[in-house]
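User: I'm curious whether this sequence folds into something compact or stays loose and floppy. Could you predict its structure so I can see for myself?
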Amino acid sequence: MQDKSDGSSLRKLNWIELLHFIRNIYISKGYEIEEIDADLVNEISDCLYRTLAGYDDLNPAKTAGHVCFWVRRLKPLHQESTSAKRMKALNEFIAIDLALLICIQRILIYNKTDLTSTKGIQFAKTTVEQILPYPIRKDLAISMRHYSHSPHGLAMIFEILFRDYINELRGRS
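Assistant: Here's the prediction. I'll summarize afterward.
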């Protein structure tokens, strides 16, 4: 599972597709979310490239922590101010969900399952609720909104949450 990272694989990271996937899930739940700010997405990509390129042992949890940090910090998603269903910590919730999906997607890839398949979606829903139930995700989102969290601190959270999966994947490579 250990990637010797020169940064080139980070440019191909599928996090932008996952961000759109999550946005669509929130829209299906009734949240009115504007288009994702493309300039901020490019800035996030640049920040990820700079902050992750130096890792010798890049794993999904480290990637997830950094993506979570930059999405939360730069806030590429916005809601209509007149929206009936508003979420104050929208970018924080989406950043956490995105980070979880980055880890889950890597697990599914190793198990040769597509995230968008019925089996993949069911695995993602079950895993998210088992690993980080909604009340705890809500506490983390609120904490991220009001307090400082470093990319490394968030990466450690995801390392702990997915440690069994990461160790299993390391054993396969």
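Summary: The two ends are 5 Å apart (CA to CA). The first helix runs from residue 8 to 11.
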